[in-house]
Write a structure and sequence with these properties.
about 100 residues; 2 helices; about 20% helix; about 40% strand
Amino acid sequence: MASDELKIERLGGIAGFGLPSSRLKSRGSCATATLTKADQDAVERLFAAKSKKKGPAFPDGFYYRITRATAKGHETVEVPEASVPAALVACVKDEIV
């Protein structure tokens, strides 16, 4: 993954999409440079808020796992679907595995 690229996965829901036993994966990637300044700021806020939360709590709802490369390695945050900028949601495609 390039340093300016975000890896995005849609997980959860009642059917458990994207989980280890699921045959449907919803994932994609997005170059940070292609995002608007507002979307870049929203992504930064998601990662900044990560340190204030203790694990995901999204019963039966969809959530997104967003990963980026940093100088210290990969950084991942899991957030509810409603918190994800639309530009990132649009990068995610469903695939059968």
